[in-house]
Design goal:
The complex is a heterodimer.
Chain A: H1 12-24, H2 37-41, E1 56-59, E2 62-64, E3 70-73, H3 83-95, E4 102-105, H4 109-114, H5 134-156, E5 163-166, E6 169-172, E7 178-180, H6 181-189, E8 237-243, E9 250-255, H7 257-260, E10 265-271, E11 275-280, H8 283-291, E12 294-298, H9 307-317, E13 324-329, H10 332-338, E14 341-349, E15 361-366, E16 371-375, H11 380-391, E17 398-402, H12 417-427, E18 434-437, H13 440-445, E19 453-461, E20 467-476, H14 479-483, E21 516-522, H15 537-554, H16 559-564, H17 571-584, E22 599-607, E23 610-620, E24 626-636, H18 643-662, E25 668-669, E26 672-673, E27 691-696, H19 709-726
Parallel strand pairs in A: 3-4, 8-18, 16-17, 20-21, 24-27
Antiparallel strand pairs in A: 1-2, 2-3, 5-6, 6-7, 8-11, 9-12, 10-11, 13-21, 14-19, 15-16, 15-18, 19-20, 22-23, 23-24, 25-26
Helix pairs in contact in A: 3-5, 5-6, 11-12, 15-19, 18-19
Chain B: E1 2-6, E2 9-13, H1 21-28, E3 47-50, E4 53-56, E5 70-72, H2 84-92, H3 101-114, H4 120-126, H5 136-147
Parallel strand pairs in B: 1-5
Antiparallel strand pairs in B: 1-2, 3-4, 3-5
The chains are: A alpha+beta, B alpha+beta.
The complex binds FE2/S2 (inorganic) cluster (2 copies).
């Protein structure tokens, strides 16, 4: 495969060209004549339709260049999860184009707005990138193929039904005449877009469903991939920022005299009511000067808040009489009271930062007429809305240009606080593009954190060791209450029950428990919560899967058999669990490693529409040194668009999930986060990375996401294996806070 | 002002003495392939080669350099992305978001230069870069592939 010479997406040249084209609209003294500029100056959208005059847009999704290069438009964001390639596969499958000539581009949110949201939703979160848009992008590809075939048939004056498309060539079957997509694309683009568009049976897929290589690799190998923080624009200045480290606090006063005298410094600015930025010729000078600015904060009402205080509030909520019910069957309280044996345990899960490798950043330029932003975002439309609001300009006069993200994990999905800051800075320097880049420290302190929760599990075991009743009391923070409080009704956030629902096709409990109560007492500390890759499935799966392991041991049963007895009505959950147990060799002893005995632990869940399971193999030395040797993981996503990218997501999910399990914790003291960089916020590195064997088990008939669900099974599988190895139950994450030493 | 020897060329950079090499590369020389991830020598996103050895550019001021030290960045690793590490990365789809990968590739290339046939244990010990997407297992496989078929255990 000749991928190295394939134009990357978006390459440095492409990006700079489009950036310059967009800037041309401002007539700020940059004179870079480019196609589309004239239109831009007459008031058309500054980012003129991405198709240059020589390329033909067949429909919104497909552009064909005269040399037969196929440009597939991707509305969702690529942040490493492979969605760009997967979506292109789905379009290409129906388009019947030559896969070797496929490239991609992002339409902008401004174009989406101007064209009546022809590309639909741009948000890329909840592992929804493919599953939510697969139907209409496949139809987009199929419609484009029908138009290309029709255009060829028209040129030959033959019925379209006698023509077929394959590998970007249209053939008139009776005569054997052929033409290429490139030759008929312009005519095809003038045809009406068909409305009745049948799709292939996935069983007939040739490009989709295949483990093809990603389209976006080449530029990531030689430094040419331009990320948001790499952007260079003519005349651009750089900004570093410091916001009040106590959430809800404000700037009281600023002494910037020393900073203003430092080399390269242009301005010291207030940003909103809670931040100070330094704008300089280079970012390093801006950052250095920022360190010299003396800021006095009004820390506000949360100045004394601490993690210990949050824990107290959550613990008392474990007994609160008021709680929103997420799942109920039978009478759990009565069954537990009547059971011969009661088992109880309290678990907790901490705040965590996403810690994307690329820190938050955005470049903005503002004039009274227009505002333009360049930023890595999981949701271009949401970034666009924030840019419009902050700029004070109507949305049609704003534009956002997206990049491949240097990680997203949910941080760049819902709120765009850094975009607001960038626009507020740019607004104070009309006509000058300013690139705002956070320090890692700012990124750590100003996160949108994994919600903090506790859980009390209470169960009644029957005479035969059967699970007679279970009460799962969740207590803690609601992401929805923090981000979209208007969506909370009667103190109920349905998302807190991820993985525990009775039936949602999205995130359902995999066990039938005759008497069950799962409820949530919402308590919201002031630390702003965010969607953190895996979201609430992460802690819910730990609570349920570790406690089931506890119950199995209390009942004297094998953890796999104990689960199986509850899973008869959940065949898809059971199938992935069985798959990992079988592959890992559950029931037979694991071979020792370096003289240490190896133990196994299991976990399964359903989230983001997919069924996932894991079996972890660990050893723990007498001194308490944990080694995670191997993990077998299974995923049933319904339809598997690219199995090797699913495997990549599963492997990566263990890095993210095990980082969380072992180290992930943001603690609060004096109202602010204590962890400021990767020295105090440790993450998993290569020396601790287990081998991962991925089983992809697509059973068809539904579309599940793959970027997130596996994270949830990482920690419980390892915790259950640690118990098997040591007899210790670790119920408070992260593991680093508990000694596994046995003497 | 400092004189740097970067990717085979001697260049002068206008920067304060304490400016980290990382920011001189990115801002004075426009070599943005070298990434900022932490600024405190923790993550390896800024890894470059100095006289063939992997070094974290965020933690070295430009004043520590003169034109005799050969600095190589990701842009200068090979003229056409043909370094065995780059080829192995391409074949195995190693990058996810890719942001850590310039540093990862430079660390891997330096490891192979010093230890052409590293064991898996050596790879795990020597490459300490952070990748939040979690490409570690493909990084290990990529280094082994680039090293050639004879590597073991
Ligand atoms: S930026 Fe240099 S090690 Fe992280
Ligand atoms: S590939 Fe994204 S951080 Fe490594």
């Amino acid at each position: 495969m000749n991928a190295i010479s394939r134009p990357g997406n978006p390459s440095r040249r492409h990006l700079l060209a489009s950036a310059s084209a967009a800037l041309g609209a401002f007539t700020l003294g940059f004179r870079i004549p480019l196609p589309g500029e004239a239109a831009a100056q007459t008031g058309a959208p500054a980012s003129a339709p991405a198709a240059a005059p020589t390329s033909a847009e067949v429909n919104a999704w497909v552009v064909v260049k005269p040399d037969d290069t196929i440009v597939i438009r991707i509305a969702r964001s690529e942040m490493g999860q492979g969605t760009l390639t997967g979506l292109a596969q789905l379009v290409a499958e129906e388009l019947e184009c030559d896969w070797a000539k496929v490239t991609t581009e992002y339409p902008t949110p401004g174009q989406n707005l101007a064209r009546g949201r022809v590309w639909g939703n741009m948000s890329t979160g909840g592992s929804r990138g493919i599953r939510e848009s697969q139907d209409y992008v496949r139809k987009g590809g199929a419609a484009a193929r029908m138009m290309l075939v029709q255009a060829a048939a028209n040129a030959w004056s033959v019925p379209a039904g006698e023509c077929r498309a394959a590998a970007s060539i249209v053939t008139h079957m009776p005569s054997g005449r052929t033409t290429t997509f490139g030759r008929v694309a312009e005519a095809a683009g003038r045809l009406p877009v068909p409305t009745d568009v049948p799709l292939k049976n996935p069983a007939d897929w040739k490009v989709a469903g295949q483990p093809v290589l990603r389209l976006d690799t080449a530029a990531k190998l030689n430094g040419s991939q331009v990320y948001g923080m790499d952007l260079q624009l003519p005349g651009m200045l750089n900004a570093a920022i410091h916001a009040c480290p106590v959430f809800g606090g404000k700037v009281r006063s600023v002494d910037s005299a020393a900073a203003e005298a430092m080399p390269g410094v242009k301005r010291v600015l207030r940003v909103g009511d809670n931040a100070v930025a330094v704008v300089a010729d280079t970012w390093w000078r801006a950052k250095t000067a920022l360190d010299a600015v003396n800021i006095t904060w009004d820390e506000g009402e949360h100045a004394a808040a601490s993690s210990a205080g949050f824990a107290e509030v959550l613990r008392s909520a474990l007994d609160a009489p008021q709680a929103a019910v997420g799942n109920r069957a039978g009478d759990a309280a009565a069954a537990i009271a009547a059971a011969p044996r009661k088992v109880e345990a309290v678990y907790s899960y901490p705040h965590q930062n996403h810690a994307c490798m690329e820190v938050m950043n955005a470049t903005a330029v503002w004039t009274p007429e227009r505002c333009e932003v360049w930023t890595p975002t999981q949701n271009g439309e949401a970034a666009h809305a924030v840019a419009a609001e902050a700029s004070g300009l109507p949305p049609a006069r704003c534009e956002v240009h997206k990049f491949h993200l240097g990680g997203g994990f949910g941080r760049r999905a819902a709120v765009h606080d850094w975009v607001r800051q960038a626009v507020e800075i740019a607004k104070q320097m009309p006509g000058t593009p300013v690139k705002l880049v956070w320090t890692r420290e700012e990124d750590m302190l100003q996160g949108r954190f994994h919600p903090i929760t506790m859980c009390r599990m209470t169960a009644g075991l029957g005479a035969q060791g059967n699970l007679a009743g279970l009460h799962m009391r969740l207590a803690g923070q609601s992401i929805i209450a923090g981000m979209f409080p208007q969506n909370i009704r009667d103190g109920r956030d349905p998302l807190v029950f991820q993985g525990l629902n009775a039936s949602s096709n999205e995130a359902d409990i995999g066990y039938t428990i005759p008497n069950l109560l799962i409820d949530h007492a919402m308590r919201n500390p002031h630390v702003p919560p965010g969607f953190w890759r895996g979201v609430n499935l992460n802690q819910n799966t730990i609570y349920l899967e570790c406690f089931l392991d506890e119950l199995a041991h209390a009942a004297g049963k094998d953890p796999l058999e104990f689960r199986r007895a509850l899973m008869a009505n959940h065949p898809k959950h059971l199938a992935v669990l069985n798959a990992v147990a079988e592959r890992a060799g559950w029931g037979t002893p694991a071979a020792p490693v370096d003289g240490q005995p190896v133990f196994r632990g299991l976990s399964q869940t359903h989230g983001f529409g997919s069924y996932v399971a894991a079996c972890a193999e660990v050893s723990v030395s007498e001194a308490g040194v944990l080694k995670i040797h191997r993990i077998v993981a299974a995923t049933d996503p319904g339809h598997a668009v690219n199995p090797q990218q699913i495997a990549a997501q599963v492997e990566g999910s263990f890095v993210y999930g095990l980082s969380a399990a072992l180290y992930g914790e943001c603690t609060v003291k004096d109202g602010r986060i204590e962890q400021t960089n990767f020295d105090s916020y440790q993450v998993l590195r290569m020396d601790e990375m287990p081998k991962v064997e991925t089983i992809v088990l697509p059973t068809g008939g539904f579309w599940g996401g793959v970027g997130e669900p596996t994270i949830a099974v990482a920690a419980p599988a390892v915790l259950n294996a640690i118990f098997a190895a040591t007899g210790k139950r670790v119920r408070d994450l992260p593991l680093k806070n508990t000694s596994l030493r046995r003497t | 002002m400092a004189k740097l020897n970067v990717n085979g060329q001697v260049v002068e950079v206008q920067a304060e003495d304490d400016t980290p090499l990382l920011w001189a590369l990115r801002e004075q020389l426009g070599l943005t392939g070298t990434k900022y991830g932490c600024g405190i020598a923790q993550c390896g996103a800024c890894t470059v080669h100095v006289d063939g050895v992997a070094a974290r550019a965020c933690a070295m001021p430009v004043s520590a350099f003169d034109e005799t030290q050969r600095i190589v960045t990701i842009e200068g690793l090979s003229p056409d992305a043909s370094h065995p590490i780059q080829q192995a990365w391409l074949a195995l789809d190693v990058p996810q978001c890719g942001f850590c990968q310039p540093g990862m590739i430079m660390a891997a290339a330096a490891l192979l230069a010093a230890t052409p046939r590293p064991t898996e244990a050596q790879i795990r010990e020597e490459v300490t870069n952070i990748c939040r997407c979690g490409t570690f297992n493909r990084v290990i496989a990529g280094i082994q592939r680039a090293a050639g078929p004879a590597t073991a255990g």
